[in-house]
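Propose amino acids for all 86 sites.
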């Protein structure tokens, strides 16, 4: 059974707001509220992979403390730009 698009967005938004550390709740939660509905299915697939990553790693990647894996860099660049604006 295929997940309805609106169900997928709700699930991803919830996972964005319910992370392991508060900093990532704020960064990913606010980003998902603003951007998830505008993403195509391929980018949503990458975002789902990103959500499987450890919060400490995600935080270091978003803040530029470490280089992110190549396959996540374009999306993380968007998220980092958002994080710098909040």
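Proposal:
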């Amino acid at each position: 059974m295929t997940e309805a698009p609106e169900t997928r967005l709700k699930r991803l938004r919830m996972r964005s707001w319910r992370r392991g550390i508060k900093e990532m709740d704020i960064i990913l939660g606010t980003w998902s509220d603003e951007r998830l509905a505008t993403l195509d299915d391929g980018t949503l697939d990458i975002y789902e992979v990103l959500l499987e990553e450890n919060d400490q790693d995600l935080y270091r990647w978003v803040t530029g403390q470490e280089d992110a894996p190549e396959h996540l860099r374009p999306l993380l660049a968007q998220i980092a730009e958002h994080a710098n604006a909040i």
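The helical segments are 5-17, 22-35, 41-51, 55-62, 73-85. The chain has five helices and no strands.
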